[in-house]
Each structure stands twice: as C-alpha cells, then as structure tokens.
Design goal:
Belongs to the PEP-utilizing enzyme family. This is phosphoenolpyruvate--protein phosphotransferase. It is found in: Cytoplasm. The chain is built from 14 helices and 9 strands. By secondary structure, the protein is an alpha/beta fold. It binds phosphoenolpyruvate and magnesium ion (MG).
Length: about 325
C-alpha cells in the first residue's frame, strides 16, 4: 500500500478547490523517525514522550532524555517536532509510580494535572527538552488542559526553566512555541485570552470524543457507539475551528480520526488545515484530499445537518461515490 502512494510523497495535500492541508505524523520512539522522510510528512505533529518513561524500570535521568530528544531533532533534519509532555495516568501507568487507586482514572489524576501537582518530573523533562533544542527551535505542548489557568501555570514553568538556562549561560533554543492539547470540551469554551496566549492548539480527538460523548475509549462495549461524523461532534469541531480562526491561532488535529480518510476529509471540511496521524495513513488521506472539492463537501455536510441527519456519514459516502476517483 505504501508503494501505491509513493508517487504522492513529495506532492502537497491540496484539494481540488485549492485548500492546502498540512500533513504531519505522530511518533513516540526513535524508530519512528525514519518514517518522516518515507511518508512525506512535513513534521512530527505529536511526539508522545511517555513511551520513553513506560519502557524503563525507573524514572529516566535528565541527561538520558536530553540525549534522546536531541537525536529525535537530529533525525528530523530541521522539520518541526512537537513534543508532548508526559501524559501519564489513566491508561498509561508507569511501572515505578505508586498506583493511584482511582475509581475513574480517565478523569482522574493524569497528564498536566500530575505535572502541575508534582512539578519535579515535568521540570526535569522540560529542562531536557530545552537542552536538546539548544540552538534550534523548540515546540512543546501540554496534554489534557481543561482550563486556561492550567496552561498558564505549565507555560510559566517552561518559561522559568528557559530563564534559568539563560542565567546559567547555556545556549538556548532559537525560538519556543508553547501549545495546548484540546482534549476536554471545557477548553473549547476558554476565554478568548487563552486562544491569544497559546501559540497553537492541537485537538486530541481520542480523548475529546471520549469526553464529548461520555463513552470510555477503552471500553469495547461503548467505544464505537458514537460516530465521529455525528452532527453534534462535527459541529463542535467547527466551533473549535471558528474560535481559533477568530484569534488566528494555529489549529491541528492529532487523534486517530486524522488518519481515517473519510473522517479526515470531514475534519478538513469543518476547518482543520493541519492533521497529524500515523505515518502509514498519510498516503491514503492525502490521496483522497487531492481528489475532492472541500467547499462542496462542506455543503453536503451542512445540508445533511439541516435535513435533520444524526450523522453525516451516509450523505458523505453517497457524495464520495459520485466523485471521479
Ligand atoms: C488523543 O487523545 O487524541 C491523543 C492524541 O492523545 P492520546 O491518544 O495519546 O491520549
Ligand atoms: Mg489524549
């Protein structure tokens, strides 16, 4: 399948209507980096840093992490890599962390909540990232931000660490981008000042969908119960895109749906212009985007919604079947 899309590797994901969509890849291991060239991704839109913590029997040391992040940046050869800070708790439990006996871990003490309450590990990780990015751009995003105040606090920790490095006379990153993952519905309703403050927003669709429909993403019984193309969810994605557009805040989508061609198409129709997905999905998603007129798809979605459809999937499939492929 990879070879089928090889001819698209160097071509942009530009739709028939002229809309350009940036294609990035998700990664989490050094071994993923060769796919950056192989897939034609423009960068790493989500580097899940927790895998390095999950693979060890003890907390990794700052030096080890800095060396690893530096190798990741070397392999990216100047392409942007967005490092997501440690996202533990819920489904990701560190072997050396005291188990938290929580009745509902997905909504419990996880991700940025742990980072803010016990800042030692988060600070160490941020220091490692700053060192690794010395003399080059640094992009960091914080997972599972539910409120603006959490983002402000985490951002402040990062800026303080950069200031500390500066005072110590170390070489600093040439630029620093600090973003937030939108994975809880509440953040979509944060004040305008949040969207002005953050350098970018990345929708973590796996968690966002879980909390939007209150359906556990780990529970086989309910995880496929609600459709990403449900009118209510697509409307919500459209609201987020509109809020980001008001403040010119760059927006991306990095959940699994970005790598599902039909879902990706609908996300783009709702206003997304950057998608990040597993490398193998880039070819199929790009292939489809290049074939269609997104403005026309948006009308199909709007018409289905106005006609009272619950999900736009049948209308979209019917429209797609009529497209010259
Ligand atoms: C998400 O929630 O969509 C996401 C990208 O993060 P993870 O799947 O690692 O929770
Ligand atoms: Mg998530």
């Amino acid at each position: 399948a990879q070879s089928r899309y090889a001819s698209l590797r160097e071509l942009p994901a530009t739709a028939a209507c002229g809309t350009r969509v940036a294609m990035h890849m998700n990664a989490g291991l050094m071994a993923d980096l060769p796919s950056l060239a192989g897939s034609g991704a423009e960068g790493v839109g989500l580097f899940r840093t927790e895998l390095q913590f999950l693979l060890r029997s003890r907390v990794p040391r700052r030096g080890e992490l800095a060396a690893l992040y530096s190798r990741v940046l070397d392999s990216a050869k100047g392409k942007r890599v967005v490092f997501r800070t440690l996202d533990i708790g819920s489904d990701k439990v560190l072997p050396y962390m005291k188990p938290q006996d929580e009745p509902n871990p997905a909504m419990g003490w996880r991700a940025i909540r742990v980072g803010l309450d016990k800042p030692g590990v988060m600070r160490m990780q941020l220091q490692a990232l700053i060192r690794a990015a010395a003399g080059r751009p640094l992009s960091v995003m914080f997972p599972f931000v539910a409120q603006m105040s959490e983002f402000e606090a985490a951002r402040r920790v990062l800026l303080n660490e950069i200031e500390r490095e500066r005072r110590a006379g170390h070489v600093l990153p040439t630029s620093t981008e600090i973003g937030a993952m939108l994975e809880t519905p509440s953040l979509a309703f944060a004040p305008r000042s949040f969207f002005e403050l953050t350098d970018f927003v990345s929708i973590g669709g796996n968690d966002l969908k879980q909390f939007f429909f209150a359906a556990d993403r780990e529970n086989e019984r309910v995880r496929r119960r609600y459709d990403t193309l449900d009118v209510s969810f697509l409307d919500f994605i459209g609201t987020i895109a509109d809020r980001c557009a008001e403040t010119n805040t760059p927006l991306s989508f990095c959940g699994e749906d970005a790598g599902r061609p039909i879902e990706a198409l609908c996300l783009v129709a709702m206003g997304l212009r950057t998608l990040s997905m597993r490398p193998a999905s880039i070819g199929p998603v790009k292939h489809l985007i290049r074939k269609v007129n997104l403005a026309e798809l948006r009308s199909v979605i709007d018409e289905a919604r106005e006609a009272g459809a619950l999900t736009v999937r049948p209308a979209v499939m019917e429209w797609l079947a009529r497209q010259p492929m």
